[in-house]
Amino acid sequence: MSDFEVEPSLKDIITHESLKWIFVGGKGGVGKTTTSSSVSIQLALNNPTKNYLLISTDPAHNLSDAFDQKFGKDARLVEGLTNLSCMEIDPSSSLEEFTSNNSMGMDQSDPLNGMMSEITGSIPGIDEAFSFMEVLKHIKNQKNDDSSVIKYDTIIFDTAPTGHTLRFLQLPSTLEKLLGKFNEISGRLGPLMNMMGGDQKNEMFSKLADIKAQVTEVNKQFQDPELTTFICVCISEFLSLYETERLIQDLTKYNMDVNSIVVNQLLFAGDDDECKRCQSRWKMQSKYLEQMDELYEDYHLVKMPLLGNEIRGVDNLKIFSRFLIDPYDPKKQKDVVFSLTDH
Amino acid sequence: MQNSTLLFWISLLTIVSNILSITGHSKFEQFVFRTYTKATQSSKYAQYKKLKDEQISINRERSLLSAQDNYAKWTKLNRKFDQLSEKLAAIESELNMNKVKVESTIKLALKFTTVVPITLMKVWYSRTSLFYIPQGVFPWFMNYFVINFPFMTKGSVGIFFWCFCLNRVFWCLYDILKFFFIDEKVEKPTKLNVDADSTTVSTKKTE
């Protein structure tokens, strides 16, 4: 089977011309943000003519820490790059924007209104919903011919550590069903609602129908392997692998394309290594790595080294992200481990 | 239809429907369901059993492995197990739907063969006299008002009244027979023992 070996790098993804959505996800603490930032940087460096956007859907944002730069709810260019922007979606401000846009004549200073927005802001899954609305906005912008709005060729999602990612992906189909039912009901009760509510209801229904069309479009795009892919990030330990396996099974059920797994924090401690602890841990890690090689034959299994320092700042990320494309060689590139610049 | 035939059929149907209500519709339905499924659905059940056995053997194999030491093999067994669970769930839902369908059909069929003919006959032959009681058997007001209850001529018994009498006799006989031959089991009353020291309440069977 050596003539059809899947190469252990993300070159496929970086050079893939038609990809529009890239999700990076995995259980907590495995290096999702580092990986998603690295993927974005490599994409930006390899395709200087295209625009990229990295969105964090994690309520505990850390893109700002990763890049050593303050980001907000509006996309901001990364210092040092011309075609990569980052966005950290803040649910409370998105909520305010949302309610002010759709106030429907409600009194803004009404205390009841404030309570409603507080309650809405604490609904589990509200972060995913707002990230999703960003997605919808972006799709609308793409169809927009207005040149003042920046269009992004690919959007990379740095997802939240827990199962929220799956809930986020489930949103399109759930919303579709919800909106479908709503449309049905409104169609039947239409004349009745006209008598009661008047024009406001009509406006709401037409907006909902609009959203439904967008949601269906998003659903279609997320299930197209030419447009969307998911990169699983894990470490070489039992629980992380088990979670990755479950994540992959769930993603396959959603028909989302998964073909790459990034294994972080590998020690590559050879027999000549002085640290006995590193050697013993590396033994445990290689045991699982072998099992993964057998289990995920058809996947790009990218093995990333554990470096001596935190990977923060664009320069360090550039050094680290190289290994996503050219696999790390522990014998030749041992010096990299201690070569990270302090910021 | 000739009066005698009508009499025969209505009596038969009434008695049959009463017997059915004694034995319980559900028992009859289940009996029919079981024979029907044995005849037609046995292949599906066989498939279900086969998959279930496979799943149990995979589970056994999996529990013998250590997940940490044989991660790849364990995960592959996991995947097979999940696939089988999905298939089993699909077959189960199919079988359940089938069961529901068959049971509702049986209920409908029962209704059609008992209740509907009786009602139809009652409506269609409401004015037909089944038979006549000779004068002198009952007091005059019975002949005038009671026996010929709905709209009959004096002294004749119609279908409505006949059904009524049949039902009453049937249930009276049933009660008598039940009283003599069937002993319903009555449970001994249990005494609630409220413990003064603890907060628990235990039940103690009376001697």
Automatic annotation (TrEMBL), chain A:
Signal peptide: none annotated. Pfam families: ArsA_ATPase (PF02374). One of its GO terms (biological process) is tail-anchored membrane protein insertion into ER membrane. Residues 20-325 form the ArsA/GET3 Anion-transporting ATPase-like domain. Keywords: ATP-binding, Cytoplasm, Endoplasmic reticulum, Golgi apparatus, Hydrolase, Metal-binding, Nucleotide-binding, Transport, Zinc. SUPFAM superfamilies: P-loop containing nucleoside triphosphate hydrolases. It comes from the Eukaryota. One of its GO terms (molecular function) is metal ion binding. InterPro entries: ArsA/GET3_ATPase-like, ATPase_ArsA/GET3, ATPase_ArsA/GET3_euk, P-loop_NTPase. It is found in: Cytoplasm; Endoplasmic reticulum; Golgi apparatus. The active site is at D58. ATP binds at K27, G28, G29, V30, G31, K32, T33, T34, E237, N264. GO terms for cellular component: GET complex; Golgi apparatus. Belongs to the arsA ATPase family. Homodimer. Component of the Golgi to ER traffic (GET) complex, which is composed of GET1, GET2 and GET3. Within the complex, GET1 and GET2 form a heterotetramer which is stabilized by phosphatidylinositol binding and which binds to the GET3 homodimer. Interacts with the chloride channel protein GEF1. NCBIfam families: GET3_arsA_TRC40. This is ArsA/GET3 Anion-transporting ATPase-like domain-containing protein. The lineage of its organism: Eukaryota, Fungi, Dikarya, Ascomycota, Saccharomycotina.
UniProtKB/TrEMBL annotation, chain B:
Gene3D superfamilies: Helix hairpin bin. InterPro entries: Get1, Get1_fungi, Helix_hairpin_bin_sf. It is found in: Endoplasmic reticulum membrane; Golgi apparatus membrane. Residues 174-207 are cytoplasmic. Residues 1-6 are lumenal. One of its GO terms (molecular function) is protein-membrane adaptor activity. The chain crosses the membrane at residues 6-24. It is a multi-pass membrane protein. GO terms for cellular component: endoplasmic reticulum membrane; GET complex; Golgi membrane. Keywords: Coiled coil, Endoplasmic reticulum, ER-Golgi transport, Golgi apparatus, Membrane, Transmembrane, Transmembrane helix, Transport. One of its GO terms (biological process) is tail-anchored membrane protein insertion into ER membrane. Required for the post-translational delivery of tail-anchored (TA) proteins to the endoplasmic reticulum. Together with GET2, acts as a membrane receptor for soluble GET3, which recognizes and selectively binds the transmembrane domain of TA proteins in the cytosol. The GET complex cooperates with the HDEL receptor ERD2 to mediate the ATP-dependent retrieval of resident ER proteins that contain a C-terminal H-D-E-L retention signal from the Golgi to the ER. Belongs to the WRB/GET1 family. Component of the Golgi to ER traffic (GET) complex, which is composed of GET1, GET2 and GET3. Within the complex, GET1 and GET2 form a heterotetramer which is stabilized by phosphatidylinositol binding and which binds to the GET3 homodimer. This is Golgi to ER traffic protein 1. It comes from [Candida] arabinofermentans NRRL YB-2248. The gene is GET1.
